[in-house]
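Q&A log
Question type: sequence-to-structure
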Amino acid sequence: MVVEIPERDIAFFAIGEKADIFVEKKDRGGSLAGTITFISELADPRTRTTRMEITLDNKQRLLRSGQIVRASLTRRILKDAILIPLLAVIPMEDSKAVYVVNSTQAKRREVEIDIIRGDQIQITSGLKPGDKLIIAGHRFVAPGQKVNIVP
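Response status: OK
Response body:
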């Protein structure tokens, strides 16, 4: 199977990694386990994608030459990632910030961000598990201001 991987994602894959291939047919469907066996050294300059080949066993005869299938590839696994609502992050002049509740007062914390996934953003530093993040009205809060927590 051949897939074209976007330029920003190709660094996350290596030969020997596993991939799941999903096939949909009228009378039967299913999935096949595959292994990445080739990653091109050259990207296509027009599409900015890189060719990657996945080898799989087709004993069940689910696949035909030229057939379109769906591949599930794991780009990377983030362990213990902190994800917060994207709207909770306040862009500052030189940084990004969020507000947390420290006892009953608002405290501004500078944060470093990484991956944006939908309406969530990964925080790589500045927050820890258990911090009480202000996600509504946070743009009207000032450091040290008394905060009323409502469910």
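Response note: The two ends are 50 Å apart (CA to CA).
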